[in-house]
Amino acid sequence: MSVISHAITHVGTKREINEDAVLSHLDAGVWAVADGMGGHQGGDFASQCLIDHLSRACDQYKGNYLVQRIKQIITNAHLSIFKHSQQISGQPVIGSTIVVLALEADNFHCFWSGDSRCYLLRDNELCVLTTDHTEAQEMLACGGSTTMSHAEKVQAENTLVHAIGIDNQPPHIDYISGHIYENDCFFLCSDGINKIYSDDEICSRLLSGSAEDINHSFLNDGLSINNVPDNLSSIIVAI
């Protein structure tokens, strides 16, 4: 199957630096979005560290062997980020979310930690392949979020329970896989995107044109209409 992809990242309108980083490695069939936290020399380092580790692996390995190594690659980056954080005094917690999509033979593989997402558009229906690693999602899974106030919900939505590089414990990395079908479209993004666009809006846009045009529409409309407080990153992978 032929694959068309497009990746984009932008600092947004209010942040001084872009703590997001993206990977688009068509030859290896791997794409990733990382959303860092910790400010200058913190969040930007963490997200780029993850992308650099993945990029080097994509240059060396291919196919199933690469897919089997992705968790270890993320773990290696996790240790590098934590080591870096110990060398910087007076910094907040340094870390990054990560979502990785790998296409191998007739299958897709998705790895993630944190709240960066991967969507799948198939037969004009959109589903979220990932589950946010946030307090809000954990409460929702337990059936307790309906009793929360709006302020508590907003705080919980922004509080990560898992991320890469935040401590020296083994990172929590979730995984899902499945079969690829013709005309499948995958959409990876940092939370700066999915917090300003609903799932219905994302679905509608993904059906509207070429990967590059759609991706620019997410960015340009977000910047002009919503006065975006966060960095914006998204990748479209169309089969």
Overview of the molecule:
By secondary structure, the chain is of the alpha+beta class. It has helices at residues 43-60, 63-86, 135-141, 150-157, 191-194, 199-206, 211-225; strands at residues 4-10, 20-25, 30-37, 95-104, 107-113, 117-122, 125-128, 174-179, 185-189, 232-238. The strands form two sheets. It has a five-stranded antiparallel beta sheet with strand order 1-10-9-6-7. It has a five-stranded antiparallel beta sheet with strand order 2-3-4-5-8, covered by helices on one side. The longest helix is centred in the N-terminal third of the chain and has 24 residues, at 63-86. The protein is globular and about 50 Å long. It starts with a strand and ends with a strand. The mean pLDDT is 91.
Question: Layout of helices and strands, plus pairs?
Answer:
Layout: E1 4-10, E2 20-25, E3 30-37, H1 43-60, H2 63-86, E4 95-104, E5 107-113, E6 117-122, E7 125-128, H3 135-141, H4 150-157, E8 174-179, E9 185-189, H5 191-194, H6 199-206, H7 211-225, E10 232-238
Antiparallel strand pairs: 1-10, 2-3, 3-4, 4-5, 5-8, 6-7, 6-9, 9-10
Helix pairs in contact: 1-2
Structural class: alpha+beta
Average pLDDT number:
91
- The SSE string, one letter per element, is EEEHHEEEEHHEEHHHE
Radius of gyration: 17 Å
What is the percent of helical residues? 25-40%
Strand content: 25-35%
User: How far is it from the N-terminal to the C-terminal residue, by CA?
Assistant: 7 Å
What strand order characterises the main sheet?
A: 1-10-9-6-7
Unreliable stretches? none
The number of helical segments is 7
**Main sheet specs:** 5 strands, antiparallel
The number of E-state strands comes to: 10
Shape: globular
